[in-house]
Amino acid sequence: MRGELSPEHNARGNGRLRLKGAVAIVTGASGGIGAVTARAFAHRGTNVVLADLTSQLPALQTLAREVEATGVQALVMPTDVTKREDIDRLVEATMERFHRIDVLANVAGIGASPSICDTTDEELERVVSVNLLGCARLMHAVLPIMKAQRRGSIINIGSIAGEVGIMGIYSGSKFGLRGLTDSVRREVRSLNIGVTLIEPGFVRTKMNPSMHVLPGPEIVADAIVAAAVRPRRRIIVPKMYHLPAFIVNRFAGFADLVFGDARIQERINRDARAERAERERTKAAIHG
Fold this sequence. Notes:
By secondary structure, the protein is of the alpha/beta class. It folds into two domains: 7-241, NAD(P)-binding Rossmann-like Domain (Rossmann fold, 3-Layer(aba) Sandwich); 251-288. 50% of the residues lie in helices and 15% in strands. The protein is built from nine helices and nine strands. The strands form two sheets. It has a seven-stranded parallel sheet, with helices on both faces. Strands 1-2 form a two-stranded antiparallel ribbon. Helix 1 (32-43) packs across helix 6 (218-229) and helix 3 (84-98) packs parallel to helix 4. The chain is globular, with a radius of gyration of 19 Å. The termini are far apart.
């Protein structure tokens, strides 16, 4: 049958997942981190399921042709992770094509204004729906399959903002994802299923358009692939963010003093407010 792969391709040896011939779902696959992650899996011989919004279909199709040129199979699935019916269709299509799911990389995510006061109610709900509930629903959908296989790797993309609470509802969603990842990892640990949280700092993507001197998304993709092979509890990238995370968690009162300063808050919110003002001016010009 087309797409059927032999079980030995993804068996674990010495606690490690063999990526050659395995099947990985990558959400947010058209984005900076998602696309690089799909390519990284493909170069390791992993078949990829590319999931993103319907509006990103041309980008997904281009990416599929690119990874298929490396000799792997690619399945394009338009998916809105805020809709359970889309998630169920994604999982069903993956099983119909490949008959198993070895890796779930929850890359899809959106940002928000650092100040909760600058965020609309619609934005509050959207951030939680994508960044937290989207990951929860995807794990809920794939875990029965991984439990039956008694193997699998789940990688959730959090953020250093899930360690340092300075980014409003975005931090809230990533703190929540951190707790959810810990809970699920402990729930399935005895079933040979790894659940890893990767927490990037600032990385060069569309979410950080005004910050140019940043490491590329490859640093996150490499961590995702490494975690699929050998699951870890938590991976912070780049490594320079380890110390700030430690200080904030160990000395919370000091962090309150620093980040509670009005000048620091103004600096944190300055770029986001400027970008929002520019969007409002553009919108007014279009409709004006």
